[in-house]
Amino acid sequence: METVLSTKGQIVVPKAIRDSRGWNAGTKFTVEEIDDGFVVRPKPLRRRTTIDDVAGCLRYKGKPKTIAQMDAGIARAVKQRHDRSRY
Q: Which domains does the chain have, with CATH numbers?
């Protein structure tokens, strides 16, 4: 399979390869130089962040809230959103 480098420095990846890998327009790649050329690899998708990844990141100065206080705060916020027709 022959590929040509364009005057803009672009290389076209053959359609059969793009289709087999599921690469669409906008797919981002990394390019790594090796002894006799280079390797092109798709950038890994960012891992989805979970609450466990960020729990405790924000500082809170004050007495910890009880579960009952948190439940009451959530209930107030839900009622306020409902009253503003946000649900």
A: 1-45 (2.10.260)
Look up residue 41 and give its two tokens.
Answer: 């690899």
Q: What is the pLDDT of residue 86?
A: 63
Residue 39 corresponds to which tokens in the numbers above? 């390797």
pTM of this prediction exceeds 0.70: no
Residues of the chain whose pLDDT is less than 50?
none
Please give the pLDDT value at position 31. Answer: 92
Q: What is the rounded distance in angstroms from the CA atom of residue 3 to the CA atom of residue 54?
A: 45
Task: Give the per-residue SS3 of the chain.
Answer: CCCCECCCCCECCCHHHHHHHCCCCCCCEEEEEECCEEEEEECCCCCCCCHHHHCCCCCCCCCCCCHHHHHHHHHHHHHHHHHCCCC
